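Notes from hallway chat w/ T.B., transcribed later so I don't forget. T.B. wanted the structure written out for a chain they're using in a teaching module, and asked if we could keep both sequence and structure tokens in one place. Agreed to drop them here.
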Amino acid sequence: MSPIRQQNVMAAQWSPGASIGLRDLTNSDNQIFGENVFSPAVQRQRLPKDVYKRLSQTLAKGEPLDTTLADAVALAMKEWALEKGATHYSHVFQPLTGLTAEKHDSFYGPTGEGTALASFSGKELIQAEPDASSFPNGGIRATFEARGYTAWDPTSPAFILENPNGALLCIPTAFVSWTGEALDSKIPLLRSMDALSKAAIRALRLFGNDSVARIFTTVGPEQEYFLIDEQYYFERPDLIITGRTLFGAKPPKGQELDDHYFGSIPERVLAFMLELEEECAKLGIPIKTRHNEVAPSQYEIAPIFENSNVGADHQQLTMQLIQNVARRYGLVALLHEKPFAGLNGSGKHNNWSMGTDEGENLMEPGETPGENWQFLFFCTAVIKAVARHAGLLRASVASAGQDHRLGANEAPPAIISIFLGAELQKVFDALEKGRAAKSTPQSFLGLGTPVLPALPMHGGDRNRTSPFAFTGNKFEFRALGANQSLGLPNTVLNTIVAEAVDELSDELEAALAKRGAKLETALASILQQAYSENKAVIFNGDGYSEKWHKEAAKRGLKNLPSTPEALPELISDVSIALFTRYGVLNQRELESRYEVFAEQYVTKLNIESETTAGIARTQILPAAVRYLTELSAAEMGTLAAELRAKIDEFVFAITKLEEANLEENHPKSEDVLDHAVYFRDTVIPAMTDVRTVGDELEKLVADDLWPLPKYSEILFIK
């Protein structure tokens, strides 16, 4: 082992007493939960009664905000923030980078008397002005057209971010161009929530519910991530630059023994998790679960359900906190979808549902789902929506990193299908045949000894290979990548379901308008036809199997394994008509996202390809040549010949990649998709060839000469 790598191994030996991150975490979550959030409870204490009441009613009904409230809210928010130690505030927004953005402004301004006074007006709360040309915009804004606005989102509470040297008031906002187009992921999400709320309320009126005033969609994202020692991270330029390892031979042991999944959490990692959960609790993020994931050094954190826009904001915060807190323990968190070849990548399961302002979950089947017509109506709408817009759903999660996962035997396939489970499948099969389905009585699983209790069994098994699975009282969209924003996938989900609900409501209204028509009779006929027309998307088997791929093709389901194949779905005529009809995204906004995502795909792959060539030529090749020199000097002819042949192969692969990287060899077309296809078909195969030979050299070159930390070190030394 090289001296540098030996030093890294020793430095990675963590002891609790030596950790700069170790803190007193004796506070219970009940005491600290939401303490840094300008929550309704805080608002009730600090706002005048009439202001708090008007604000609460406005938010509950989803009505426009009365700007006369803004000054009172701003004053209370400022005083609360100052008491928390904040000196600055920031409009935090979510541009199309997939990350969050912020500009800090001071509360304090000079008075002219040699002093400074803290002030914060309603105008400053409601609106700020960042540069709208320096963020991805897909051509909506030229470089010289800089004006854009952030607008306060009062439905997502403001919060305090603590820093060792101070604190910052963060105000969740939307980001829009001067010409009015949405330049972020929040505005379309809020619009889609409104669209689904209107459609679902209309449907509930047909079921006789006249009291519901608002429908909310909810999300509960399961976040996967890797943790590695920072010593190894800083010795891997590929991790630093691209977020994933571009080289690395498969170690003798990976995840084959299944010994990491749900295993005992390493002490250092658990210390990190405890502090992470404390930070989340302060910000009102309701973390429920933590555990080891499948791959070594891979972990998961999952919150309880929240309204979609708040959940999306909290998810961005959670990713930021994971990375920040990890550094306090000498760790680096990797959120790339595929940081290590040959091991499971990281996803983010998006548990989606919808419920009323009266607390009813519309995706709850109840004990007798075959008789629950309201549930069957909304569930059929989801099936109809996914069947029609499967390609759009796939496009909403497309990226260069995702192409390593989707379709592989570790993540949902690139073919979007729905898993219903045995009990619900039985209900829909009976519905299609025009008869009522009898509910299966509760079953219990005996464990063969009176010491252990009999366990109540669910009505069906789970299916980890399904991209879109019903899991009891929600649908789990399992195809999101670990570092992705929840914004676009949930915008798509909400909008396509709104359309399906409206279409079923149209049919139901028409049927009920006929004299003497009964609700259940009309529903049975409508849902029977809708399910029959869309059942091709239902698949309860192994989504990884080649047999399913062939079957899916026969059914006419789309298989979009790569980003260049998926992205055009965003700007298809069907997608443009859908989003325009519901006022979620206009054609220009859709086209801008298509351009941005395609350009990001090309840019990320270009960075990866140039980094691959650089590491290969300047680090791996010199190490291999040095070892060849040693073998030749020692007259180890057979080994030297073997290594020389592999070096020649490596040089050939490097040259081929460098030629592919030359801009003069790229397409001359101005269509960004042509460039994306070039990278997929030419650059990626050239990168793969370089890596394949490079990883073979790792197994041949003397360990003390190898320049990069190996997988066996990075993944197993904690």
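Follow-up for T.B.: The first helix runs from residue 3 to 11. Might be a good example for the class.
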